[in-house]
Design goal:
Porin; 1 helix; mainly beta; elongated
């Protein structure tokens, strides 16, 4: 996973960058995400659109996999929300905070002999995040994000933290 991410990052750096996009009204970006949660790992993809230089609309889809005690977890989440930029350092570094709503499907599979098998559970709720965007060229950025999900219907608990790293391309 780490080698794939670093190889992709290296190849994308070789593509010539054109134009100054960054935080400009009307631009969009797509990206791929990898990270860790309180229960395992996550992989996903997302789309962002800059409504204003300081307001960003986000839509993301992630798959979380992990193990909690004797239970395997697969959780598919789709979320949408807005981020607000409240600090910028030059034209390359931005600090954002945001709120979103998500929905998903939680699949729990017991690994103990004689246990109940598989349980599927619908989940939804709010999430909050804080993230840092670093534009290493005019079209590519790396985003580091910390999120906290509130899951009122989850069988594993109510609060789930997640940290992720995303590579995004602006168009």
């Amino acid at each position: 996973m780490k080698k794939l991410f670093l190889s992709t990052l290296f190849i994308l750096c070789l593509i010539p960058a054109m134009g100054q996009l960054k935080h400009v009204k009307g631009i969009s970006n797509i990206g791929f995400t990898g990270g860790i949660t309180g229960n395992g790992k996550l992989l996903g993809a997302g789309y962002s659109h800059y409504l204003q230089p300081r307001w960003i609309l986000n839509v993301n889809a992630v798959l979380e996999t992990g193990k909690v005690e004797s239970t395997n977890l697969k959780n598919f989440i789709v979320s949408g929300g807005v981020d607000h930029t409240f600090f910028e350092a030059g034209e390359s570094l931005y600090l954002n905070a945001g709120l979103s709503l998500y929905t998903g499907l939680e699949k729990l599979t017991s690994t103990e002999k004689g246990a109940g098998g598989t349980v599927k559970n619908y989940t939804f709720g709010p999430a909050g995040n804080i993230n840092v965007e670093w534009y290493f060229s005019s079209r590519f950025l790396i985003q580091i994000k910390a999120e906290q999900y509130f899951c009122p219907l989850s069988k594993l608990g109510k609060w789930f933290p997640a940290c992720s790293l995303s590579l995004k391309y602006c168009f």
